[in-house]
Write a structure and sequence with these properties.
The protein is mostly helical. The chain has one domain (about 20-95). About 55% of the residues lie in helices and about 10% in strands. The chain contains 4 helices and 4 strands, in the order E-E-H-E-H-H-E-H. It has helices at about 30-40, 50-55, 60-75, 80-95; strands at about 15, 20-25, 45, 75. The strands form 2 sheets. A two-stranded antiparallel sheet has the order 1-2. Helix 1 packs antiparallel against helix 4 (about 80-95). The protein is elongated and about 50 Å long. The protein starts with 13 loop residues before the first strand and ends with a helix. The model has no long low-confidence stretch (mean pLDDT about 85).
């Protein structure tokens, strides 16, 4: 029996820049991280934790529930919101 090889997923998060370059978040300049985070927030992305909080607390009224479900259908979630915030906080503590 031949062993299957699987690609290991890198533990270090990698960001794909607008021009297609990929860079490890740890290697990004703080200003680049701040700009990328601001771009995600402008586009309406939230962290997975924020999405989970919204999903766990649905409203009870019919009209409100319909509006909530519609909003949940368009929810934009990116793990990089948390990744970037954590990286900036870590750098701030190290300074």
């Amino acid at each position: 029996m031949k062993a299957m090889r699987t690609k290991r997923r890198s533990a270090a998060p990698v960001w794909t820049c607008r021009d297609g370059r990929q860079i490890a978040v740890a290697e990004m300049a703080a200003s680049h991280i701040e700009n990328a985070l601001a771009m995600l927030e402008r586009k309406g992305f939230i962290s997975p934790a924020a999405a989970a909080r919204q999903l766990c607390n649905p409203p009870t009224g019919d009209g409100a529930r319909d509006a909530w479900e519609s909003e949940m259908d368009t929810l934009r979630v990116s793990r990089f919101v948390d990744v970037f915030r954590h990286e900036l906080a870590t750098r701030l503590q190290a300074a």
